[in-house]
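Human: Here is a favour to ask of a fellow structure person. Comparing notes only helps if you start from a blank page. Give me a protein, with the fold worked out from its sequence. Please set it down just below, with no commentary around it:

Assistant:
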Amino acid sequence: RHCVPRIMSTSQAFVRKRTQDPEGPSKRLRKGDPVLDSSKQQKNRNFRNLRILSWNVASCERSEEAPDDFDTAAASEAIGNTIRCHDADILCLQECPADWCIFSDQYDLLRDPVPSHCGYVQLWIKKELSAFIPRVHLLPRQHPSVAATLDFPGGLTFGIASSHLAPYKEGEGMRLQQIRQLVENMPDVCCMIGDYNMRNAEDAAVEALGLTDAWKEVGRPKNAIFTWDSFANKYHGPGSFSFKCRFDRAFVRGIGDNAGKSCRLSVESFQHFAHEPMENGTHTWYLSDHYGIL
């Protein structure tokens, strides 16, 4: 199911195009496993299932392909509407504007936004989740990440981190160092997610730290591979260099202790959003140069 945010700008309504792409495959869970879940079918909010959203919002700047009357304010509103319509429990956002706090009616912002090499990193949790868990503990800031532990009833401590790691191919060593520092401070059961700026050649070294790639865990769905595709997404204009990359990652670490019982964190699904263009009849454009992940 695809969200269709609608906003009014002057005399036009802009809508996101719909496609009928099937969702990626899901893994069958063991009875009792907590899961990371992007399904909107949950009605029993005991938060054993969590929906986690991550997106690099490109500073909420307008695309070079957008119509003239789709300004920065309109872009910010459309991005906010797109995020809200997925009703995630946790929002992990990167490249946010410095003063962008439009979710405070539904979510609690954990820590002031942290600066990265471009924009700011944010971590939000839904107010209902804040009320459900006894304690939230912010982890020390070591690099462009916002990380916290959530202490759930029953003794499970779950770690969550939103990150925007070092850019460019030559940043590989710095990225590995940043990930290693983060891993050392996270609890046994955790999700580390965000714009990692990683290349495929870095996978083995990162996974050797005891992390599982969520996309691989659900069977490497072909419709949720690349979060950067400047062949299709001309956010930076028609003359921009065209390439594809899986910059945005979700890693999980899953063996912990839940009131004395073994607890395995399972990934139920992994999918993209904001991977379809907006349109107004004469223009098609994307809201960010990155696609979001759920």
Remarks:
- The first helix runs from residue 72 to 84.
- The first strand starts at residue 7 and ends at 9.
